[in-house]
Amino acid sequence: MTSEQVTAAESETFSPVQQAWRRFLRDRFAVAALAVMLLLFLAAMAAPLIANSLPLLIITEQGEWFSPALRDFFAPNVQEVFVEKIFNYLLFAAIPVSIALVLLRKYVLCRRIVTGGLIVLLAVPFFTVQQKNDMRDYTKDFSHAEIIYAPVPYGPFQTSSDVFGKPSAEHWFGTDQNGRDVFARMLYGSRVSLAVGFLAAGISLILGTLIGLISGYLGGKIDLIIQRCVEIVICFPTFLLLLILMVVLLDSGSRQSVLLVILVLGCTGWPGLARMVRGEVLKQRQMQYVQASECMGVPFRRILTVHLLPNVSGPIFVAFAFDIAGCILAENSLSFLGFGVQIPTASWGELLRQALDDPLLHWNLMLWPGLAIFVCVCSFHFIADGLHRAIDPKSAG
């Protein structure tokens, strides 16, 4: 059976989404990249269970059980609490919601009610538990109790006298200039990179798609005005604009540097996507299904969201995957220059900056963050390329 016959048979059996997914699974590089990103995302979610200076569980001589790490899990005592709570919530809710989805897969209405209730209910502790600065030495206070620590008993902010330490059995990736465990900071730094990548790209996705849909569908003077505004934004050097905005916003005294990076990257990365969406809408605008919808009096908003958006969504998903890689690279570049995520928050770019004085001497601070950035960015590029081939196999060759 020829490839054309296989494609024809698939088109009769599977929906367009299923066909695209099957084509994506045939791309070994894209599947391998997706597996790498899933592993990285799972490691970022499970960071408090892998690297934590607080005991995960203490069993006293009286048989009482309690977890000092649990309060810190619900109310992290960190500067960038937003990112930490997002990943902790995903870890906390993943298993119960997944079980509910599997058990109730045949009951659509019941599944929606139960999963919706679980999502809301499991978020309550993250709003009600108060922060507490836990400075107790549990090893001394509970010397006769059984204490269970994480595999790496160091948090991302715990300092020691072993500065610029080399990799060892105690510190797997060595220590930084303040004696902090590099593996722990790499792990928690992955949370920052993934949060910035997905959230900033998500903001760009929403803005670019909305502006592109309106510009391409309405046309005329509105399209002319929007495109001139897009061209003005594109004229500015993107990275220079990022540096200027970050300097101005950081000087205002904001402590949430990750949120600033997300907002700045998201609000400056939409013009390219807007132009692409506009071009796709201009093609679809001449199709009969759009003209028929207009003749039937279908509302403007429904034409955009129900008819046009699904037919231009393929290139949008591809651009979204590329944009995630770009945002991750931009965030680490800003942090490397000192204008991104601010210390003591863990960031791959900040670790690279510490190795700048002597890269050969501090090779571990250059190798691991650089390798993580390289693998992460390349993986998203392979995923985007695989999506492009799967969604539009003819144009991809």
Secondary structure elements and pairings:
Elements: H1 3-13, H2 16-25, H3 28-45, H4 47-50, E1 57-59, E2 65-66, H5 68-74, H6 81-103, H7 108-121, H8 124-128, H9 138-141, E3 146-148, H10 182-218, H11 220-235, H12 238-251, H13 257-268, H14 271-285, H15 288-295, H16 300-337, H17 348-354, H18 363-391
Antiparallel strand pairs: 1-2, 1-3
Helix pairs in contact: 2-18, 3-10, 3-18, 6-7, 10-11, 10-13, 10-14, 10-16, 11-14, 12-13, 14-16, 15-16, 16-17, 16-18, 17-18
Describe the structure.
The protein has a domain of 210 residues: Orthogonal Bundle (MetI-like fold), CATH 1.10.3720.10. Helix content is 69%, strand content 2%. A hairpin with a 5-residue loop joins strand 1 and strand 2. The chain has 18 helices and three strands. By secondary structure, the chain is mainly α. The radius of gyration is 25 Å and the shape is globular. It has a three-stranded antiparallel β-sheet, with no helix packed on it. Helix 14 packs antiparallel against helix 16 and helix 15 packs across helix 16. The mean pLDDT is 85.
Q: Would you summarize the structure shown here?
A:
The chain has about 400 residues and is mostly helical. The chain has a domain at about 180-390: MetI-like (MetI-like fold). The protein contains 18 helices and three strands.
Strand order in space, largest sheet: 2-1-3
Instruction: Identify the CATH architecture of the domain at 182-391.
Output: Orthogonal Bundle
Beta-strand proportion: under 5%
Instruction: Identify low-pLDDT runs.
Output: none
CATH superfamily of the domain at 182-391: MetI-like
- Order of SSEs, N→C? HHHHEEHHHHHEHHHHHHHHH
What is the number of strand segments?
A: 3
- The separation of the N and C termini measures 20 Å
Text of the CATH class of the domain at 182-391? Mainly Alpha
CATH topology of the domain at 182-391: MetI-like fold
* Gyration radius over CA: 25 Å
* Largest β-sheet summary: 3 strands, antiparallel
Regarding quaternary structure, what we see is single chain
Helical amount among residues, as a percent range?
Answer: 55-70%
Tell me the structural class: mainly alpha
Number of helices: 18
The rough form would be described as globular
Mean pLDDT over all positions: 85
